[in-house]
Amino acid sequence: MRKLSLLAIVLILALVVAGCGGNTGPKEDNKANESKQEKIVLKVGHAMPASHHFQAGLEKFKELVAQKSNGQVEVEIFASGVLGGTRDRVEAVKMGTGDMELVGSPSLARWVPETFIFDMPYLITSYEQADAIMDGEIGQAIKDAAYEKGFKLLEFGENGFRNAFNKYRPIKTLKDIEGLKLRVYPSQAYIDTFEALKALPMSTDWGELYTALSQGTVDGAEATEAHFITNKFYEANQKYFSNTRHMYVPVVFIMNKAKFDGFSPEIQKAIQEAATEAMKYQRNLSRKQTEDYVKQMKELGVEVNDLDNVQEFKEATQHIWDKYADKIGKELLEKAKNMK
Questions:
Q1: Which residues contact residue 49 at a Cβ distance below 8 angstroms, ignoring those fewer than 6 apart?
Q2: 156: which strand partners?
Q3: Which run of H or of E encompasses 319?
Q4: Where are the domains of the chain?
Q5: 3-state secondary structure of 306
Q6: Considering the domain 40-337, what is its CATH architecture?
Q7: Is the pTM for the entire model greater than 0.90?
Q8: How many C-alpha atoms does 304 have within 13 Å on its Cβ side?
């Protein structure tokens, strides 16, 4: 009996020790798993050359999100539209076959009509007004509307004020722009605007624009200073760059909503914070570079000029605001008008 009792005590002690050891193993394994989390790879594209500030903004995002996620999130950047055309890429992000895209706001308006607010000619006239719209109540309303349509609009970056350029003459008055065949952003609001100015808006694909300018299929186009220089349009017979500043266009940094929602709160926070910081960096860089690009144009022999009377351009196009008021939302449009 005594031997039996001793044997029972030994068995009980062995079970206790085994139980303690069993609890320790999984805890250590969990810690090891936490330190070896699966890497998240996100692909993001844009339509501009790698020399453009879109690329710089995305490189900043890549750097920041790696830091904020302790290396768990890796970003791959694809410039010059290599992932596909702008419209197809935005649709891919919506459907979830694409991760992210940095794209001009008019490309989002197909699904999020509130975004048409940035397509209204001469509505936004200063960087201060643009920032107040993007960073305030109107910007948040657009983000909320985008979320309902399957997009996570992480942040607004900057495309910039768009201007007209051509091979024939400086545009100073309404008479100067009349009859010019100008490639415009593929948005109905842009077509409406240039028809109101009595130009001939063309729907040439962006990727074919350099060739169209060189061959004279179109007389000119409208874009930002950065687009003009980084795409070397000055080599395609474009001698006159006129500061029409007809629209201010942001870029929207969009992500598939379901993909974003599927991440842990920590990863979501890292992505959101990195996107916000990177797009603020990109906006500032865009504005600094714009001044440098104007200097480069002049050095390259491009004639740069202002309008004689911007008010006549505004009056010729202001009826377009009324046409799009219901799509945008009259309340949002009124708020933007009052932000001067």
A1: 55, 79, 80, 230, 231
A2: 252
A3: helix 319-328
A4: 40-337
A5: strand
A6: 3-Layer(aba) Sandwich (3.40)
A7: no
A8: 19
